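Ticket #4471: structure output looks truncated?

Reporter: J.K.
Steps to reproduce: submitted the chain below (174 residues) through the standard prediction queue, then opened the result file.
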Amino acid sequence: MQAPTLRSSPESPVTKLLFVCLGNICRSPSAENIMVHLLKQRRLSDQVQCDSAGTSSYHIGSPPDRRMTAAAQQQGITLTGQARQFQSEDFERFDWILAMDDQNYRDILRVDPTGQHHHKVRKICDFCRHHSDQGVPDPYYGGQDGFRDVIDLLFDACEGLLVFLQQEGSISQG
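Returned output as attached by the reporter:
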């Protein structure tokens, strides 16, 4: 049996990525917007679509956290988007679902009890090239340093994911 590729629909010219955290106001919108930034820099925006979601319903409809937005702006990233909750239909809509930590990973898999889509779910830190973190820490209850650290970690993870997508053949080298 051939290993699944990222693109669930071979006819689709676009790889679709979904970044998932708990509330969809800090980590996952940061990952989404960092990846969009990297794709624009490399002129690959036409090959990849990004979105983000949260496993909880705590912040549905809210914009990204102001502290996360400030930390991202310091690195030239503008955070956009509105929080939404992860849903089972996302397994069909996205080729790759990227969890920020172990709990998010387990929560996502729980939405797919048959395991049909488990091959699409990975932890974003699996793609880090310089950081050894196993998960992206939730900065919500911490200080500003935590938000800056998350931005740095997500840049590393998104860069690594982009390299992986290119090596895997889901997107061109640009």
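Triage note (M.O.): checked the attachment and the full token line is present. The helical segments are 27-41, 66-73, 90-93, 102-110, 144-168.
Status: closed, working as intended.
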